[in-house]
């Protein structure tokens, strides 16, 4: 009888502890994307190189468990993120990368990306765990789709004012040994070998827009080993503005980086590399009935090849910001590889570039959006000595997006790249040719 009551009491305790969780509200959200490409001349060669044709997909599911008032658990995973028909790869390397650019080794099973707790206290809100990182202000310079990791975030909201304080550990930069410090060998036990970011920010909402400022302090000691080791310390100032003036919407963001890219610690013959550079983005768009038109500009400085004591490269444009179907398109570069036979670049997020884009469109019916854009792009600086030209090229894009349902849209698009001589690299004898792309994309959100 005594054992019976012990078992019964144990069952009661288990039920008592699990009842709040079992009674939690669960909310699901996410997306499914399937996109097909046909690209005629990815390596921009003359005569034309091989064409590329594929379809990639991704299922993303986010779950929020409302444990009780003011307390939630959020998780997110991606599933079957791959090119249709790509060979299955079961090696360990296929699952270790946050974002693989090799089609056949992309994750094909569940890849959990986010898991964090949100709880409210009288002094504000805290978020603790794996979260999205590198998202602030406009979409420019954001990499939330591919950047996530350990974070502790504090939010304080008072009317239109929001204050943030963040501590990020950069994913993939923490060195550790499963056998303890001795697993690294002599000398390495004493290195931090880590990368952290400490951020503070404010955002203020007003009628028709918002402004904000983010300050980032980044410390990187992952290269601080051996006889030539160095540290990296950056300070980033990131203001933005979004505002609507009648039919005109404007947004802008600027990022200034100061500090040192390389700071050596008593390494004979080595010179510290200072960092002092900026990045600027601005866009204005007017809406007139069913039509709209706008102008956008981006300036991301490049690093001058002939300076060894300065790092002039600007803050990258981010993986979430894709101004064209071809140039600087993160998804296309991820699945189709880099541009160019004689050199690479402009196939992912924006670096070393000056860009001007004119765009316009019309919505003849509420569910249909037809858009045309022209983009001129050139490198900010020569990446090496004797570079032939800075001109990336000019791209014309035409897209039509139709909402089949409120949560389901279908896009068809075509892009043509008038290839510039930048792609010749360091020899004018290298011949380049134009490229064009046909694409369609089905997007479901829920």
Question: Your description of this structure?
Answer:
The protein has helices spanning 2-22, 93-96, 330-336, and strands at 25-39, 52-68, 71-83, 111-121, 124-132, 148-158, 161-169, 195-206, 209-220, 230-245, 248-264, 273-288, 291-300, 310-311, 353-362, 368-378, 391-405, 408-419, 435-445. A hairpin with a 2-residue loop joins strand 17 and strand 18. By secondary structure, it is mainly β. The model is unreliable at 1-19, 92-105 and 181-191 (pLDDT under 50). The protein starts with a helix and ends with a strand. It has an 18-stranded antiparallel beta barrel. It has a single domain, classed as Porin (Beta Barrel), CATH 2.40.160.100. Helices cover 7% and strands 51% of the residues. The protein is globular and about 65 Å long.
